[in-house]
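Dear colleague,

As promised, here are the two records you asked about, laid out in our usual form so they can be pasted straight into your sheet.

NAME FIELD: protein one
SEQUENCE, THEN STRUCTURE:
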Amino acid sequence: MNDKDLIKLALEARELSYSPYSNFQVGAALLAKNGTVYTGCNIESASYTPTNCAERTAFFKAVSEGVTEFTTIAIVGGLKDTKIDICAPCGVCRQIMAEFCASDFRIIMADQDYNMRICSLDEILPYRFGPSNLQGEITK
């Protein structure tokens, strides 16, 4: 699975976004180490708090099927019926990535023309709190 294939799947997932309040549609495609891809879209709620991001939807789908090792995620997002710009994951999604991913986990942020900004989890969340902190280890 190459980066453009992941972006294509993220764009397709974005079309399923349930975002009637913000009209900000996000799609994600998460590549597991076993080669399986899990997609997700954002799902809003009128009370906002239970809203779920596309990235977390993809992670939760994978984890609910017993998969907890990942290599890459592609993320696309933007307002409905407008040009998609590069969209970064929110802080909560970054924390979920820290829970399940290694420092070199790849995060691809892309637009509809497949222009990309790629970074590692270590670059986007350098001083993260994760499972190792609960075992007395110090992160960076």
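NAME FIELD: protein two
SEQUENCE, THEN STRUCTURE:
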Amino acid sequence: MTNDPEFFYDVQQGSEQWFELRRGIPTASEFQTILANGKGRQSYLYKLAGEILTGKVSEATFKPSLAMERGKTMEAEARDHYARTNFLDVQQVGFVRRKLKSGRYAGCSPDSLIDTAEGGAATERAVLEIKTMRPDLMIAAREAKKHTEIPSEHVAQVMGSLWITGYRRADLLTFYEGMPFSFLVSAFRDEAYIKELEQAVEAFDADLDALVRRMKK
């Protein structure tokens, strides 16, 4: 069994094929929920179990928040802004997944993959994650100088993307259309954190499998 990641470049995010690839498996956008180990984890278990049992994507998936809709609208401009201001090539990818020990999968949907080099090093791939933030919150963050690190609520997703892809670096761009500034923070693999995350996702996967088996009896 290979544990190399699988990259789906020809799948458009938000398409029927994309939803099918994600159906019933834990994905990076919910890794923080898994790590929190609270009621949200249980709800996520039920959601994915329902997708596995019915073969259909959960109806809850099709109820995006205002922030999610804003992100979709501004993502293309944010990606172009990143590529232009950093003189880097970006490549869109629909989905990336990695086999777990069980043979099932966990996955992520990076906003882009980038080619980057540091200090004369050979070019390597990295992950780009894009977040939009309301202008008032961006102003407050800049005034308080709280824009130089990955926000705690995004760490699990960013490190999860590095785990799934196997890459070493991720860039997090915070952006809003028309704002005269944006925030860009780089993060590198934290192997201890990624190991903890992998163990938590493996345990979640085992609980999911057990739940599905119980529901089938």
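A couple of things worth noting about protein two: Residues 191-216 form the longest helix (26 residues). The chain has one domain: 6-216.

Best,
R.
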